[in-house]
Specification:
By secondary structure, this protein is mostly helical. The protein has helices spanning about 1-10, 15-25, 30-40, 40-50, 55-70, 70-80, 80-90, 95-110, 125-130, 135-150, 155-160. It has 2 domains: about 1-80, Leucine-rich Repeat Variant (Alpha Horseshoe); about 80-160, no CATH class. It starts with a helix and ends with a helix.
Length: about 160
């Protein structure tokens, strides 16, 4: 895991970055690896791949963060990327893998109400995707919206959102 994280830091080759991120993402399926990746500063390395990288690399980084977000301590570190993830969601091509990866991560990050406030500005985007997206996009958006709607503090924001 340490070598993969170092490889991500050392290369600009998108194909190598994608493969390293896929391997880290698969490794994150095991809870012990989630802690190891966090302790090796892997979350910030993977989070750094969300800016200035090829769309496929961003998608793989989002998938890795999604798998890593199954851990409360990891969520505390991943939450700093929520605004950036929302921007990626809004600028990604409709129904793209990048958009779905962003929605999956936002679904996990919205399971508790801790980070809902960071998603308020994206509510109009969620509603637009619900209207314009294909079924798999709509289902993923609905998961985020259901999580947000479970928080009474979000009711006003959800009902006042302009689409």
């Amino acid at each position: 895991l340490q070598k993969l994280i170092h490889l991500l830091q050392a290369t600009d080759d998108p194909l190598i970055q994608e493969q390293a991120l896929i391997t880290l993402s698969n490794s994150a399926a095991f809870s012990v690896n989630q802690d190891i990746i966090r302790n090796l500063d892997g979350l910030s390395v993977i989070g750094g791949m969300l800016s200035g990288c090829a769309p496929k690399v961003k998608e793989k980084a989002l998938n890795a963060l999604n798998n890593l977000s199954m851990n409360i301590k990891n969520q505390e570190e991943i939450q700093v990327y929520i605004t950036q993830v929302c921007r990626s969601l809004e600028s990604a091509p409709l129904n793209s893998g990048l958009q779905l990866a962003a929605l999956r991560l936002l679904t996990n990050m919205s399971v508790t109400s801790d980070y809902h406030h960071k998603m308020i500005n994206s509510i109009p985007c969620f509603l637009r995707l619900l209207s314009e997206g294909i079924e798999r996009t709509q289902i993923q958006v609905l998961k985020v919206l259901v999580n947000l709607s479970a928080n009474p503090a979000m009711t006003r924001h959800l009902l006042r959102a302009q689409v």
